[in-house]
Fold this protein.
Amino acid sequence: MTRGAAAWAVLALTGLALFGNYYVYDSIGPLAEQLSRELGYSDTQIGTLNAIYSVPNIVLVFVGGILVDRYGPGPVTFWTSVICLAGAALTAIGTPFALMAAGRLMFGIGAETMIVATIVALGIWFAGRQLAFAMALSISFARIGSYAVDVSPVWAPGAYASGWQAPLSLAAGIMCAGVVAAFLYWRLEASSAARGLQVLGLSRERIELSKLAQFSRGYWYVLALCVLFYSVIFPFRSTFSIKYFQHTGALSLEAASVLNSYVFLAAVFATPLFGWMNDRVGRHGLLLTLGAALLAAAFYVLGATDLSPGVSTALIGVAFSLVPAVLWPAVTLLEPPQRLGTAYGFMTMVQNIGMAGANFAAGALNDANGASAANPAGYLPMIEFFGVLSLLAVAFAALFWRYRARSAS
């Protein structure tokens, strides 16, 4: 196998592992209303199930990034996928609430470091060629996982009819397939190295925390944008949006899930397109500013207009396709290969602080304002909260755009 063929095999196997990862993460969204109805969970508790995923990564994902730099992405991807599977299984066991939360905590311990490892794998296997396109295709695998779980009430209605536990057991089974893919990737990486197809840019240097001070100003702008963008996207789309559409639009679970899924379906196809375009035209700052602005516009539509929620879904779908396709490859332009694990790990660490805080805040806002099917207006403070975060994301994207323009001049 040539190095080029091995690189595409790495993309396929890590993509399958990410499919399982994102399926499990997003499995709470379609169940949110059912968990309230069958188990009596409040929105604060439902928000906690995704927030607690992020809590360990406030520290551990940065450590994970250092481990990737030290041991390579192959073994780290595999062992973190095993942790993900254990967490998904524990979540499916479920009650009491503390046990389900513990499962989400364990899943989070593995999931974010696994994502960092796969990003670094692509960054070093595709170094200097088609990187944005390869990363965008990888993101598409993840979005397929999110889309599959959003429409699971349609293709697996029997699971939801059986109660809250069966859909979570299905998620654990899908994560099991992700573990197999992660193992095959690890073995491919090891065999490629043994045959002289060394991964370009891989370093066994000791990474010291003091080196964070060496990161460029552009990196910090991208980090802030990343935190704000994902603090809106995942707490809304993966935790509360389906329940929000059910209660504010009087939609069934199936209809609300399909409406929400269009964001991920659009990203499956549009993200590689934007990645391909970014490889050819660059303009990272302009594209990131445009994507963040579309996200802000989506929450304006939800909170201040009577337009169909499908309009906001379309806007978020484009933003969710554009920003990740440009943001993650941009880091490779700002930091050297031997620090990519640390750079991505630290970025993901701070991202998880934002995601945890946003999940807690959104759930608390809904409970404090009595948000429900009987009081759909109670969801407005949550929409305004996400709108403010989106506007801050636009500001940091614009700062990065100015930084890149000045660096090029």
Q: What stands out?
A: The chain has one domain: 3-196+215-408. DSSP finds 16 helices and no strands in the chain.
